[in-house]
## 1
Amino acid sequence: MFYYELHSHTNTASLCSIVEPEEYIQFYIDRGFSGMVITDHFYHGNTSINRRLPWEAFIDEYCEGYYRAKKEGDKHGFTVLFGFEQKFVDGNDEYIVLGITPDWLKAHPEIRDMKRIPFFDVIHKAGGFIIQAHPFRVRYYISDVKLSLDYVDAIEVLNLGDEDVHSRRSYEYAKNLGLPMTAGTDIHSIENRDMVAGVALEKEIFTIEELIEEIKSGRAHIMPEAKFEYIKNFELNESVELDVYALTDDDLKLTADFFAKEYSQGNHP
């Protein structure tokens, strides 16, 4: 099997990371990985890039971590791919976007302030692939849950930055939607890191298109497997009250269904 990290942050573009891009390469090689995706926080997220920069300059600085990690990875035969973590103005829901290049970003400054559905549409038209990251994460700065249902292409069901109960809910949610599942470490530091997560593929891949195809096809297995099995069997208290909003016609509407089942499988109102 070949292992790939799908959720990582560098200190060049994510304020919350303390890892130099080059440091990731040997770290992941030592743990048996064949590659990774750099997914720094983008424009409305926890980015360290000056938003007052002209758009093209912003993208150049934003992509520095990816370019540096790729250069180091190339020296070691380790695949480094580009992605970004999208956040919108009106919420803390976040999305891993794959299949979009830095040059495409430069040519489309209009995506900066798009709402969810127009953003998802333009990314899909460009051949992109969208994973809702940690959909049931609740923290001091996240007061409710916002779900984009099957407007997206996959769900991150194991995130090592989440509590186990958050991942358990994400797993049930993905099952209800019938969408592909992914995992990631959501890594910001390599110090004292005793576990990493990602996907295990039966073949080695070298391009983002190959990675997307493996996820779409259901051939991307969640790893570490033991942790995923634990999550799937974690006791879930569905009596916990959460404000859950579902995306409908570009409006986020409160839903009484904990996992928004009534909107799954393309049954958008």
## 2
Amino acid sequence: MEARIPTRMGDGFMVEMTRSELRADIQVASEEAARRARVPPLTADEQAHLLDIYASPAAFTAVDIGDQVVLSCDGGGSKMTGTDIQDLLESEQRLGQDILELWHIEYSYKAIKTILPFQQQVMQNAQLMLTAPIQYGAQPNLAFYSKPDGPASNWFELLPKGDIAGARAAIDEAMEHATQDMVYVTGGMIEAGADGVDFDTTGGAGDGDFLSTLRAVKHVREKYPEAGIELGMAGELVIGVHGELEWEGRRLAGLWPREQLEVCQDAGVTLFGPAVNIRTSKSCAWNIAYSLTVIKPCMEVARIPVHPNVGEGVCGVPVNGYPPEDAASRAAKALVDILRCDGL
């Protein structure tokens, strides 16, 4: 009888599986990802290495010495100490993050616009105290520009009524406001000393969310050619809420990570963060195999660093407020060992 190995489900719940069951999950997940994204599945050697990582009973795992990668972030610290600068110091000196991020709890460019001078002062103070590069980050959050919170009509109310034209017009209006706010905030933070900016969870409200961000990226790249621009995605597939939006002739709806990377590179992004959503009813081994399969093609065309998102609920890390370190460390090792990604 095969030994049963402690492992995790996508919601973080601990279960026991045999090596054969883990192998089957990895194979099935890679084949499903390949079918959905129209990419090759993981090779036999890659699947075998992934099985070794997830069949280990170790409480914690890591890459080999010499294989460490750069750690960037979205959201930076987690308000551990109560102040922005103290959190940044903790992130740099205790957690060892290589690229830091100043952020505000109202984590959207629409909200940050109203407190920009305050955030600029915090950035200036932080730059005097820390060594690592500090970027400023927030989310595009296109939905915030729809009623009742924003000026545009609510397309999520119009679409169920069959008012497709009205919904698309509302998205177009919202995109204009969102791009303006992102340009205003990022420009102000770069002028205040930020080493770069981060557009976090891009595409969370669909293809309009993605397009408005790409437009902002292009503006920032043209005005500040030396600034770093990180763009992290919300999921593996761009949802076509509008459905007809394009970037330089390429339709945005339905793009998978490789195509997302290509349009981001064209817009001027300097660091790309793919994200693949967790299936909570599947094992972590299943989830990481799926993630690796859809992200792997990025590495073939990347001209910029690729940092897969290993935050809560993406790329093999369980949906849990406190992701278990055994699951999070396995996901990180798998991404580095198999994809040879530039960072996390």
## 3
Amino acid sequence: MKLCILENDDLDPAIAPTYTRYGAMFERLFLDAGAIDWQFDIFNTPRAEYPVSFARYDAVLLTGSKADSFSQEPWVVELRQRVSELLDQKMKLLGICFGHQLIALCLGAKVGRAPQGWGVGRMSYDWHAADIPLAPEDKKMSLLVSHQDQVLELPEEATLLASNNHCPIAAYSVGDEVFCVQGHPEFEAGYSSFLLEKRRDRLGEPMYTSAMASLQHGHDGLSVAKMMIAFVEDQGNT
């Protein structure tokens, strides 16, 4: 399997020596989840890096970003155009946070600032789609998050996969072609701690303290990565 990773942000230079880059975080995650025979190619979209052709890939993953998916920044506009073309071509797409939102936007759904404010730390969700290969048997899932934008309506023909009160559309799929989650399966507690410390003043002390404490409880990023691997490999259709 060949995965094209469209990397939509750069790591803060202070943390880059530890985590390398966002694309590398996903590569490590998928390798840990069992994608040992996969090939990973990383392209940085803010620097206008794209493959000559997407046809050689089995799937395309869109990472998170500090940018808004609805931004009119030239690189975001180009990314939306590219993703719309991939949707028309029925390419398998995986979306994470910003990627989850941008794909929903390209599908015609509303995306904007979350009415509930920032989502940070560890969040738990109800899982609604038991028929997704490797779905959690207890119908619960927890992921590390960092976002102030959300998908505000389910895209047409999409299936809701996960939700909670703060984020009613926390994950969705469209047929065998789109699998998106708001949370960050690639995040580690150390990286979430770095982001929380960086935004401490912005978040306020009560939210910061609560989010930091939540990181002690672990998350299901590896399980979500395994679901994504099964999705790309069509394990549910074999």
